[in-house]
Write a structure and sequence with these properties.
Blueprint: E1 3-8, E2 23-24, E3 27-28, H1 29-39, E4 45-49, H2 53-61, H3 81-96, E5 102-105, H4 115-126, E6 133-139, E7 148-151, E8 154-157, E9 178-187, H5 189-195, E10 203-207, H6 219-228
Parallel strand pairs: 1-4, 1-5, 6-10
Antiparallel strand pairs: 2-3, 5-9, 6-9, 7-8
């Protein structure tokens, strides 16, 4: 099967400037994701989608393909997965006649995901032909039952329950809730084409631990990741 690892890496990060190329223990952040994809047994091709010649050069040095540069209009802070997926699928089909069976989205902000996890997620997706997509998740550290919104100067629970004491219960008594962790998202091209969405309607979970779920989006995240990398 054609299983494409797809790594989006735009240049204009605002919270952490030049984030994708920042050195983590002497290696560009994006290199960790490329290397994990290269070691994954089920991945057959690795492409980086970027608007930056500098990122493209680093990506190629570490073993990824960069067959195109992403247009500036879909390399903004509010650009969506749908936009860069559609651009890549269209470009590859028109210029190479290539269409993957699965798209494995790997954000470079998750440097600690393991190759074995990428393979396990792909195997799970292949075992569910009914699924439109797979999303990697982790247990929530902050439970939605304990979240509030302000309305007219007063607090109201974000999740309204008939039991008004739900927000006072210990975590052990609350239902397990998960949050997507930006580590491994898998979708089928037909989900993009036919449903106009990277997720579709039938989504299967892939649970990951906190270590592999690290997602670098702030300077503090980067400092924590740098400390965590000491144990690698």
């Amino acid at each position: 099967m054609n299983i494409l690892a797809f790594i989006p890496a735009r240049a204009g990060s605002k919270r952490v400037p030049n984030k994708n190329l920042l050195p983590l223990k002497g290696k560009p952040l994006i290199a960790y994701t490329i290397e994990a994809a290269l070691k994954a047994q089920r991945v057959t091709r690795i492409i980086v989608s970027t608007d930056s010649e500098e990122i493209a050069a680093v990506a190629r040095t570490h073993g990824a393909e960069v067959p195109f540069l992403r247009p500036a209009e879909i390399a903004q802070s509010d650009s969506t997965e749908m936009q860069f997926f559609t651009h890549a699928l269209d470009w590859l089909l028109v210029h190479e006649g290539y269409s993957p069976d699965l798209l494995v989205l790997l954000y470079p902000t998750s440097p600690f995901r393991k190759s074995a996890s990428i393979d396990a997620a792909i195997e799970k997706m292949l075992g569910h032909p009914e699924a439109d997509s797979l999303r990697s998740i982790r247990l929530c550290n902050e439970h939605p039952y304990k979240m509030w919104v302000e309305e007219g100067g007063y607090l109201q629970p974000l999740v309204k329950k008939t039991d008004k004491n739900s927000h006072t219960l210990s975590y052990q008594l609350l239902p397990k809730t998960y949050i997507q962790n930006a580590s491994i998202y898998i979708t089928r091209p037909r989900t993009i084409r036919e449903k106009g969405s990277p997720t579709g309607d039938v989504i299967i979970p892939f649970v990951m631990d906190e270590f592999e779920s690290v997602d670098i989006n702030t300077p503090l995240d980067f400092r924590i990741a740098d400390l965590m990398a000491d144990g690698l």
